[in-house]
Amino acid sequence: MRYRALTWDHPRGYNALAAAAGRLDARRDGLAIDWDKQPLEGFEAHPIEDLCARYDLVVMDHPHVGEAVARGCLRALEDVFPEEDIAAWGRDSIGPSLASYRFGGVHWALPLDAATQVMALRADLLDEAPPRTWQDVLDLSRRKPVVLSLAGPHACLSFLSIAAALGEPPAVADADVLISETVGLAVLAIMAELDGRMPEATRAKNPIGILEYMARHADVALCPLVYGYVNYAAPREGQGLPITFANAPRGEAGGHPGSTLGGTGIGLSTRCEITPQLLDHLRWLLGAETQRRFIPDHDGQPSRRAAWHDAGVNARWGGFYAHTAETLEAAYVRPRHDGYIAFQTDAAAMLRDALATRSSHREVLARLQDRYAESRRSGGER
Length: 382
Hints:
There is one protein chain. By secondary structure, this protein is an alpha+beta fold. The protein is built from 17 helices and 10 strands. The protein has helices at about 10-20, 25-30, 40-45, 50-55, 65-70, 85-90, 135-140, 155-165, 180-195, 205-215, 275-285, 290-295, 305-310, 310-315, 320-330, 340-355, 360-380, and strands spanning about 1-10, 30-40, 55-60, 100-105, 105, 110-115, 115-120, 220-225, 245, 265-270. The mean pLDDT is about 95.
């Protein structure tokens, strides 16, 4: 059986999956998988329904779950895997990696890759310990160049993460209320101060672009919130200087690091023909030895907790995993209702415009809440 599969065009998203598929022999194993790839932004541009109509396996981010369920284009894991498998993945996956794909009482993707926003810095450009709180970040920004990740959806994601650090994960206490005015104003004040001082060269860059820039230039010392890419912690020759990663900032000393969960999972489309051989291959991808050895050895970022604390894995990758695991364990899970992705896109644009024009923060919060409420009306369960 030959399957078509889609992932994203970065070594972290493609290399391990392609290498795993390369180990398969159709006659011996009873299956073959052809992995295509597209830019990460392509998953925002192409509806999940369209991707599932063309592919058997789709690597996806958890906020797309509500949209996929509303359009009936994914298979629930409970329909194809026994309960004990799913329970084991829940125990073994770091943070909410599996739980983030639970919607409507069942799970919709396998937790392949774990990631969240963490702090990235050039240790050679700092003459002090990395900041621990958002006040520390503001203080540092008055002495060293600090950048925010604002391009694409990331202005919204940074907003959500700072709110979580300040003690109010958005839309958690009340699914219909994005953020209180008190915390929302505090978040916007932090973002506005940092935005006013950040280098222009990084303003339009996505997380990969920011990390690439930091690896090759000496005019950015720190990005307090950027999705972690292990590849930049121990770059190959010619790929720039290593980036040091640390836990995301906290609202106060002793608090939890605030960060919005990223990572990816493998969804099975309704067009996918389920065979025992396919399920065995997917189990192998999530297995202990694969996650500790094969995936890190092929530029991937494992989802299994044990891999994040493995001494050998951390020695190979500059301590990336051990230095950021606390953030991932506490990561905030975004709403997943149908309509959330469109809200995230619009909210990011509103925030960028507000920062650029120095708009009234209260007016910005009101617009964000109105747009969020609109997305809730058109969607459903988180």
